[in-house]
Specification:
mainly alpha
Length: 90
C-alpha cells in the first residue's frame, strides 16, 4: 500500500468537503438572516463539541489534534460567514 498516496487522497477529499460545505452554507446564509444566524450557531455548536470531546478524552486527546480541529471549524466559519470574531480563539 502506498501510504503517501493515500494521505494525499484523504487530504484532497477533506479539502473538497470543506470547500463544498463552506460554499453551500454561504449561499444558504445569503437567503435569509435567520439562516445565517442558525449557521453561526451551528459553528458555535461544532466548536463546543470539539472542546467537550477534548475535555472528556482528557490526556488521551492530543492538544495538537484539538487545536487543529478548532482551527478548521473557525476557518470554515470565516469562509462561510465572513471574518467575524470567532467564539473560540485558537
Amino acid at each position: 500500500m502506498d501510504y503517501n498516496r493515500e494521505i494525499h487522497a484523504l487530504s484532497a477529499q477533506a479539502l473538497a468537503f470543506g470547500t463544498v460545505i463552506s460554499y453551500v452554507l454561504y449561499r444558504v446564509a445569503q437567503v435569509d438572516p435567520k439562516f445565517a444566524s442558525a449557521i453561526a450557531q451551528g459553528f458555535d455548536d461544532a466548536a463546543d463539541h470539539v472542546e467537550d470531546f477534548a475535555i472528556r478524552a482528557g490526556r488521551a486527546a492530543s492538544p495538537e489534534h484539538t487545536i487543529k480541529a478548532l482551527q478548521i471549524v473557525e476557518g470554515l466559519r470565516a469562509g462561510t460567514l465572513g471574518r467575524h470574531p470567532p467564539k473560540h480563539s485558537v
